[in-house]
Amino acid sequence: MTFSLNTIILEPLSKEKPKNAVILCHGYGGDGKDIAILASYWRAHLTETIFICPDAPEKCAASPTGYQWFDLMDQTPEQILSKSLVAENKLNKLIDEVKSKYNLSSDQIIIGGFSQRLYDYSSNWN
């Protein structure tokens, strides 16, 4: 199974089926490789955890080699909200894919990251 977003995956160091997953979302203009560096440090302490580091769904307007969850340039607050909800749906789809592929429940998955207020999305998990 491939994921709906291009994703860097760091398998558990235990080489066993993951007991938990951490989904780390990069900041504006970054990519999954950027935040996977952080995951590589945490991985040594969370040996039964898989780390999922997706690229955001859009190429970044301000950084042509990076990605964005939604455009921040020349947007009204209403447009930013609308586009952030689209990004939220894409991220929720990825979460569902991770749950299905690794047979994990919501309480076995955590999402983190920085920039673009992605941390707000966790309040909508079911």
Structure characteristics:
single chain; four-stranded mixed β-sheet; alpha/beta; Rossmann fold; 126 residues; two-stranded antiparallel ribbon; disordered C terminus; 2 helices
Could you explain how this protein is built, in words?
This protein has 126 residues and is α/β, with parallel strands linked by helices. It has one domain: 3-Layer(aba) Sandwich (Rossmann fold), CATH 3.40.50.1820. The strands form two sheets. A four-stranded mixed sheet has the order 1-3-2-6, sandwiched between helices. The radius of gyration is 14 Å and the shape is globular.
In short:
By secondary structure, the protein is α/β, with parallel strands linked by helices. The chain has two helices and six strands, in the order ββαβββαβ.
Radius of gyration from the alpha-carbon trace, in angstroms: 14 Å
Q: Could you state the oligomeric state of the chains shown? A: single chain
Proportion in helices: 25-40%
Largest sheet strand order: 1-3-2-6
Q: Please, what is the CATH homologous superfamily? A: Alpha/Beta hydrolase fold, catalytic domain
Could you describe the largest sheet, including whether it forms a barrel?
4 strands, mixed
Average of per-residue pLDDT values: 89
Total number of β-strand segments? 6
- Please name the CATH architecture: 3-Layer(aba) Sandwich
Q: Order of helices and strands, N to C?
A: EEHEEEHE
